[in-house]
Amino acid sequence: MATKICKIAVDAMGGDYAPAAIIEGVKLTTSQAHGRFKVILVGDADKINRIAPDLSDFDDTISVEHTPEVVSMSDHPVDALKGKKNSSIAKIADMLREGNVDAIFSAGNTGAFMAASMLAAGKIEGVIRPSIGVFYPTYTGTSFLLDIGANTDCKPRHLFHFGIMGATFVKYFLNTEKPRIGLLNIGEEPSKGNAATIEAHNLLRSSSLNFVGNIEGRDIFAGAADVVVCDGFVGNILLKLFETYGTAFEVIFQKKLGNNLFYRIGKILLRKPLIQYKEMYNYEHHGGVPLLGINGVSMIGHGHSSPQAIKSALFSAMTIFERDIQGEIRKEIAQYKENS
């Protein structure tokens, strides 16, 4: 059976280091993809070609689509979509809506990109609110946290849908059979929490999902659940904590060492495990977060995305496309909609 070729439109102008880092990331991806990718770089063609005059060496795997406008990080999402219809973000969203590409990626204005993605692809039937999530390391492996900022005010059924989408994503992305779902709360008892989490607990417990109950903050790194569900307000705070955890540990560790010679010798001996520890929290390993619950593949990159992060995000997008994970989410949502 022939391998599917994933056609991805990339916002070349999005991110703090665009377009140079985006272009290098795309080149790195296609050089390692063995023909599984075709990438369209969307943005200022003059800038792109000036930075990367060698793009023609990549045959037909990388092409450029010109757009004259750019959505900046400071632009209001709604205003940007209305006022900059010829921007790179608007263009890649149009390409997804028209079926010209299989996936889209941007490390630019997150709010504008999410809004453009949802308007272009539309929500999966039955999904109340699409969600974004992120992988993070645990003592036992890797877990997936959602929502991480797309939905700051959530009703019980929103949290229930996050559980369905998160479990489906982890099942097919990580090949984890029957992922364990935990609801982040202030106590393990079903009666703990606010009205939204108490009712969400009831919905999850009454489903056929592998719900392990409420989990507390202390359980997050213990790997008590493969999927951790929370509202986007709490999730975004945790995301920012995860991003700084490795660096914070390194800084504190350095201060504790001081000028003591024996401590410094110990640091040399511990150098490899310390580097490995810090790498566990390196966002570059996954590169981006998927927007779950829409009729298409949309990957959201970190504003500080490096070429390595871009490569990881594009490979993740390809995996979601090849395994039709959004289609699997559609099936699961339909099942619970029929049974509700």
Number of strands: 11
- Cα distance, first to last residue? 38 Å
Radius of gyration: 21 Å
Can you summarize the main beta sheet?
Answer: 11 strands, mixed
CATH class of the domain at 1-127 and 293-323: Alpha Beta
Q: Which CATH architecture of the domain at 1-127 and 293-323?
A: 3-Layer(aba) Sandwich
What portion of residues belong to β-strands? Answer: 15-25%
Low-confidence blocks of residues:
none
Alpha plus pi helix count? 12
CATH topology of the domain at 1-127 and 293-323: Isopropylmalate Dehydrogenase
The main sheet orders its strands as 3-2-1-4-11-10-5-6-9-7-8
SSE order: EHEHEHHEHEEHEHEEHHHEEHH
Mean pLDDT: 88
Task: Give a verbal description of the structure.
With 340 residues, this protein is α/β, with parallel strands linked by helices. It is 46% helix and 16% strand. The chain has helices at residues 20-32, 45-51, 77-83, 88-97, 110-121, 156-173, 195-206, 232-257, 261-269, 271-280, 307-322, 325-339; strands spanning 6-11, 37-43, 62-66, 103-106, 131-137, 142-146, 181-184, 211-215, 227-229, 288-292, 297-301. An eleven-stranded mixed beta sheet has the order 3-2-1-4-11-10-5-6-9-7-8, with helices on both faces. Strand 1, helix 1 and strand 2 form a beta-alpha-beta unit. Helix 4 (88-97) runs parallel beside helix 5. It is globular.
Protein topology:
Layout lengths: L5 E6 L8 H13 L4 E7 L1 H7 L10 E5 L10 H7 L4 H10 L5 E4 L3 H12 L9 E7 L4 E5 L9 H18 L7 E4 L10 H12 L4 E5 L11 E3 L2 H26 L3 H9 L1 H10 L7 E5 L4 E5 L5 H16 L2 H15 L1
Parallel strand pairs: 1-2, 1-4, 2-3, 4-11, 6-9, 7-8, 7-9
Antiparallel strand pairs: 5-6, 5-10, 10-11
Helix pairs in contact: 1-11, 3-5, 4-5, 6-7, 6-12, 8-10
